[in-house]
Amino acid sequence: MTNFVTVDSIDEASRKLSGVVKTTPLQYCQRLSEKYNSKIYFKREDLQKVRSYKIRGAYNLMSSLVNGEMKNGVVCASAGNHAQGVALSSAKLKIKAVIFMPNVTQLQKINKVKSFGKEYVEIKLIGGTFDESNTAAKKFALENDKMFIPPFDDYQVISGQGTVGKEIYEQLGGENLGYFFCPIGGGGLVSGAGTYLKTKLPHMKLIGVEPEGAAGMYYSVCKGKVTSLPILDTFVDGAAVKTVGEKTFNIAKNLIDKFALIANGAVCTTMIELYQNEGIITEPAGILSIAALDEFAKEIKGKTIVCVISGGNNDILRYPEIMEKSLVYQGLKHYFLVQFTQKPGALKQFVSSALNPTDDIVRFEYIKKTSREMGPALVGVELVKKEDYPKLLDKMNKLGISYTIINDSDVLFHYLV
Question: What domains are defined for the chain?
Answer without folding.
Answer: 7-53+155-323 (3.40.50.1100), 55-148 (3.40.50.1100), 331-416 (3.30.70.260)
